[in-house]
Amino acid sequence: MPQDTIESERLKLIPMNTSFITERYLAWLNDPEVYLFLETGGNYSMDDLRSYVNTAIEKKTLFWAIVQKDNGNHIGNIKIDPVNERHLTGEYGIMMGDKESWGKGFAHEATDALLKYCFQTLGLRKVLLGVVKDNDNAVKLYHRLGFITEGEFREHGFYNGKYCDTLRMAMFNAEFGK
Fold first, then answer.
1. d(CA 12, CA 113)
2. Choosing from 35, 92, 142, 159, which is the catalytic residue?
3. Known active-site residue 142
């Protein structure tokens, strides 16, 4: 599948490459506030980060760095992985690592641009995601974008010191932008 640079009003989604393997990115992975509801869990070394990024590049994972156009700051990452070419579905994930960028609409803008790319360029039929139900900001974001909840897994994962429910949400190509 192709992986192009994607642009929105304030952002560029740049295909992940080794130039993004930085102390800044590593700090996000080890920041409990950043990884609170993510699968990462902290305790990463630079070698771990390098291995992760290089593996994603080798596997041609649809994985982008989120970069601000005005100042070139790398503020997070976004991906569609895996993609099921038979069913035309993809699994969405995002990490907004730069806490100074939180609450400014960058996650919404990046996700909207990526969904447009998935549906118009890649021809996907459906984009799926899993989100911890207690992650109120993310759940609200996904609802604002038009994702629907398709199911709930009770006490599915251990986050923030307790077992939490996970929502499975989806956006269909035919419903995007409505």
1. 9
2. 142
3. yes
Q: Which pTM does this prediction carry?
A: 0.96
Residue pLDDT tens, the chain, 178 long? 668 999 999 999 999 999 999 999 999 999 999 999 998 878 999 999 999 999 999 999 999 999 999 999 999 999 999 999 999 999 999 999 999 999 999 999 999 999 999 999 999 999 999 999 999 999 999 999 999 999 999 999 999 889 999 999 999 999 998 7
| CA distances (Å), origin 37, targets 4, 7, 134 | 28, 27, 9
**Best CATH choice for the domain 6-125 from the list 3.40.50.11810, 3.40.50.12370, 3.40.1210.10, 3.40.630.30:** 3.40.630.30
